[in-house]
Amino acid sequence: MTALSDIDLTAEPGETITLLGPSGCGKTTLLRMIAGLEPTSIGTISVDGSSPDVARAAKRVGFIPQSPALLPWRSVRANAALLLDINRGASPTTPSVSVDDLLSEVGLADFADAYPHELSGGMQQRVGLARAFALDAPLLLMDEPFAALDEITRTDMRHLLGRLTEPLGTTVVFVTHSIAEAAFLSDRVIVMSPRPGRIVERIDIDLDRPRQPDIENTTDFFEVTARLRSALLEGSA
Amino acid sequence: MIILRRFGAPLVGIVGFLVVWEAFVRVFDVRKFVLLAPSKILSELFNAPGFYWDNTLITAGHMLLGLAISVVVSILVGAVLSSSRFAEEAAQPVLILVLVTPWVAYFASVKQWLGLGMSPIIFLAAFTAFPVLTFGVIGGMKSADPAARELLASVDARPWEVFWFLRLPAALPSIFTTARFALGISLAATYYSETRMNRTTGLGAIGSRVEFRPLTAAEVLWTTVFCTASLGILGLVAISAAERVLLKWHASQR
After folding, report:
1. Among A64, A67, A74, B187, which is disulfide-ready with A78 (CB 3.0 to 4.6 Å)?
2. Distance CA A146, CA A122 (A)
3. Is the N-terminal amide bond of A196 cis, ω within 30° of 0?
4. What ipTM score was computed for the predicted complex, to two decimals?
């Protein structure tokens, strides 16, 4: 089976790229390939000049899975620091932000000593964000991290994510099927269509940065979402 | 109210059981070798507390040493087996075989093999607990969150890191559950193997050899039964206590 076909894509440093498409279009597969979690049968992927496996071993990639995947026996702080405790040799010697700073940044300073079962779904995923940012990796890969959250929490989360990525200049590849998330977060949206997964359109999002939550009420934002919606519909037609 | 129910109800159960037992023995005048009244067991215990205490400690030592070995080995073996579907399926019939083969039957061979020291006792205590514990380890390790495994893979975690940070803690609830069964099996195996060695100490040894106290053989037998059961209960209480501390995060402890 061919999951993906004819994908040619380059992310510029500091850019946020969103892979937008319906279920089964291979966007998650593509993300996992970039993360080095899935082998590529044909073609090459290069992360910061090296192969995904090398980047993975050097902890140059922060991965945020669909479910928060917190370890229930670790406190919030220990969960946020988990990826630093593993493969220690490759951990940043002087991370630009500390775990505690990140926790207060995502609004969880008072919950640092709590356990995951004491948190709501949105708070758990915020720990997941802090955990990925703690790595201080130049590339973050996010696989529909907010898919399981309710609409209000989900909106808050994309605003939070925007606030975190912009000042750090992290390159982000974000997978979603939410048009609003794609429009708010991205510099560029890659619209994909299924069977086999391929790119149907590349859309630059020219909304000003830094983006504030109220941008979502502007006509510019509305136009962007309308454009994304029609591209998505055309792709799946 | 909750405290009353948690501690009161079991207490009522035990006292009720002892009263019925005592009454049964007295009313039907049961021979003491068949069933000794609890009051007689208590008075035997108070007549020679040091004797029973010392021997209970010896049996406890045998059992704990065997169990400790078994826990360590089953965690190592279980970790290997749970990482390969094939290995797990290949090991399954062997573990079941160890589980169902009556140790009473092959203990004579163990004695031949390991000699007359305490090694045959330790071996049996460990070996009988091994399959149950290993099943618990495998089941627990396989229950580790696949998304968390993926997350660890994304930073190139070494196999020992996956074991230490993810699979072992994830297996703890299931290890604790199976440890209760393992304790029961191991205690029975320890008692039995003590009866079959040419020894003078340990609950199994004193309970099975009337020559130590020919006139009170029935009392000794039933009092060792009592001490063995108490040892088992104490072990289960210790497991529950350890669980409370180590599994604070787990749904079963909330």
Report:
1. A74
2. 8
3. yes
4. 0.88
